[in-house]
């Protein structure tokens, strides 16, 4: 098994309370399934949408967000999968895809030290 | 931890009500933004970390922090209550002031305050109901439009106009004035009644929407009953009426969503818990001298709910209850219902006679159930031809696929009955 990070980009919960609830229920169901199949290494953390960007030798500090709203990373999860193909397959169940969001699937580098 | 059903909808009402009390009705939009913000935050956090032990408290605490941010940000740009304006000028007093305004005791009646505020006398009834759905029940404009089978634009206009009226009142309704409370209460009961009816008889084709509306009306009536001034005989009667009607909801549609008339319903599917609760509330309503339309309608619903079949129903009693209702609140629809009960009790010919004798009959010409009732009694009199014509008129007025399917079924029954009867007439002609 190898480790992969899912980065959740963009997506919106929906404007009405009932839509928020429905999206939430889909996320819960998705994680439950991933968990039952033993793919979740760490369910991860949500990230604040705003922050600071420190850049260059000048160490200039600018206010985030650093990307357009649709590309902002809202959180991550650490996944265990056989290979990249399987990790990608697993990401296709993510409810963020239904609300114009995306999942970035990144293999964690294996270190032989 | 699982999410309870409609958690966000219900919390939305409570949170917007509390924030509006704090910010003032002129800042309702700010209150709604803060709630929206808190929901986004809950969504981001809960989806990854799971639903917390006490989701309601989590949401309210988040709203409180967001409210502090909003007050800090907006303290110079907006007008708040003079007292609040003073407290939020200084960082020393801002957080403690908000903390106090969010104390459990202060929040307690906010939903009720907002409920009364939505029933502002300057608002037409349909605007009151739309406003309640939007603010107290957390329905978006699209969801309200779906419930009323209206357009987004029309409902948005209705709600934004109503919100302007609400903003003009500056403060939420003050529950401490006995006189003001009692004089606004009938309007609140009426709005809840309309909300329930919209779910029960309304035009929305989706049965899920209809059931939701009924449940929202019942939830709000419980809030009203929990307040000492709200728990009047009329409120009990209204709540009884809702429970007794809601008991029949599971049998009103079959597995494929088709409407079943009272006569065809599988009564074993009626919810006996709701019947019992309705009966309990009806008992509680029968104190004092007041006999309201809700008492009478609840009594009628009770007779239906406790009858083993349409035939075994005490139609005579129902006729007399409708007659009392006609005296309190005369309307062509009540008269039609009375006529139908007479027809059940004394036969279809009498039913037809009573329908034709209704005063202001012309006000029923757009009401599909008027023609459906005529069709039904003509059918039972054996006049399948006329019956079919009446059902066709009803069909032309039907408001959703469920009603249309129901009426088409009746039309087919007319055709079949006619075909069975026709060999006789063919023979006669030959």
Characterize this entry briefly.
The complex is a heterodimer of chains A (113) and B (430). Chain A is an alpha+beta fold and 113 residues long.
Describe the overall structure.
The complex is a heterodimer of chains A (113) and B (430). In chain A, 25% of the residues lie in helices and 30% in strands. Chain A is α+β, with helices and mostly antiparallel strands and 113 residues long. Chain A has one domain: Dimeric alpha+beta barrel (Alpha-Beta Plaits), CATH 3.30.70.1060. In chain A, the strands form two sheets. Chain A has a four-stranded antiparallel β-sheet. The longest helix of chain A has 20 residues, at 17-36. The mean pLDDT of chain A is 90. Chain B is an all-alpha fold. Among the domains of chain B are: 1-107; 109-203, no CATH class; 232-311, no CATH class. Helices cover 72% and strands 0% of the residues of chain B. Chain B has 22 helices and no strands. Chain B starts with 6 loop residues before the first helix and ends with a helix. At the A-B interface, helix 1 and strand 5 of A face helix 1 and helix 2 of B.
The unreliable regions of chain A are none
Largest interface: A-B, 21 and 26 residues
Query: The CATH topology of chain A is what?
Result: Alpha-Beta Plaits
Mean of residue pLDDT of chain A?
90
Q: What structural class do the secondary elements of chain A suggest?
A: alpha+beta
β-strand number of chain A? 6
Distance between the termini of chain A: 18 Å
Weakly predicted, low-confidence segments of chain B: 426-430
Q: How would you classify the quaternary structure?
A: heterodimer
